[in-house]
Amino acid sequence: MPTLGDLERSVMDILWTSDSPLTAYELQETLAAGGGGGEASKPLAATTVLTVLSRLEKKKFVTRERTARPHRFVAAATREDRMAELMHEVLGTANDRTAVLERFVGQASASEAATLRKLLGA
Amino acid sequence: MLTASVLLGLLAIALAWPVPLALARAAWPARAPATALVLWQAIALAGGLSMIGALLTFGLVPFGERIVPASAALVRNVAVTGVTPAVPVWHVIALCAGLLLGAHLVFNLVLTVVRIDRQRRRHRELVELLSSPIPDLPHSRLIDLQLPVAYCLPGSAHSVTVFSAGLLELLDADQLAAVIEHERAHLSQRHYLVLLAFDAWHTSLPWFPIANTSQREVGMLIEMVADDHARATVDDASLSSAIDLVAAASADQRMPPAESLGSTHGARSTDTAARVDRIRHGNRLGTAGRATVLAGSFALVAVPTVLLFAG
Known about the structure:
The complex is a heterodimer. Chain A is mainly alpha-helical. Chain A folds into two domains: 72 residues, Winged helix-like DNA-binding domain superfamily/Winged helix DNA-binding domain (Arc Repressor Mutant, subunit A), CATH 1.10.10; 42 residues, no CATH class. In chain A, 49% of the residues lie in helices and 10% in strands. Chain A has five helices and four strands; from the N terminus they run αβααββαβα. In chain A, β2 and β3 form a beta hairpin. The radius of gyration of chain A is 18 Å and the shape is globular. The termini of chain A are far apart. By secondary structure, chain B is mainly alpha-helical. Chain B has one domain. In chain B, strands 1-2-4-3 form a four-stranded mixed sheet, sandwiched between helices. In chain B, α3 runs antiparallel to α9 and α7 packs across α9. Classes of the chains: A mainly alpha, B mainly alpha.
């Protein structure tokens, strides 16, 4: 039984690789067919998919297009952008100075952070 | 009370500048990092206490000989009878400054807790989407990143340790075990709480050069404590080679070649070099030395407390 976290990850993986916005039904179909890295399994309830989507929307990972019914869902940023965001936090080079993480080998110094920001173009 | 105020003031100055500076330069903390960590916390606590205490006791001089009856007299005068005795302006200023400083420190502590909690939660959400669980290792995630990193993410429900694919490629099984033990020590000993306190201290007094130094030193000592914890279960060579490999590989990947010989690289290497050096050659500080430091730490906190209430 996949957890909510696993489902969120599978849904994001589908949205990140999809060329166009998807409806909850399309996502449900792809998930059932084993898309998004998960194994093919018995189909999830439509309400479960909608729950996962609204959780992701609340976390601002997914945007909902309300122009037509049924609503379509799209990733708010690319996987690469999210990865870069994570990297900045891991390396302590995010713009807001914080020592949130205890890394095995040190935190970046201020000038190193500047260099890295330049490299990543952020 | 004037004597107590002057003594507290002198103590505040000593703890704000020469004492932490000398401690940051001293060599012994690397030989007893856990003990040195206690001393740093005592310095910060005693420093804050004597700073606020000096101002409050000076402000209360016109109201009495002891801080408790003097405060009571002040409250009675102002709130109950509405009569304010003629108090020299300096005492009023000191009193207000003391109260403001105290409020400022508490406010910044709360602010730091909220800020760090929010950032951690956000980071956790990102990690959950971008990484997968590691089957044999509970509460750990593997992230598809070439940069060799390992870090822990404390959480209220359960904490998570994150490893990158690059790290797993770089290290052998023993070295990896050393990293895991190191990260486990951070979590089980709640090092993030100490870091948080010093982060708040730094946020409150950004113009204090010493707040910066202490935060850096404390961060370094915490790594050494975690190293020592790992050394209890893994051999020294695995740990020191793991530190060396990760430091070298991340420096290579993160610095463009032209700048990799720059001073920032050098500054960072001293940190990891110090860690590796003490594992390879370091001898632990003796029991007598550690006991002296602990007694000193206790005295550091006790002295301003006694001066404040009995002076």
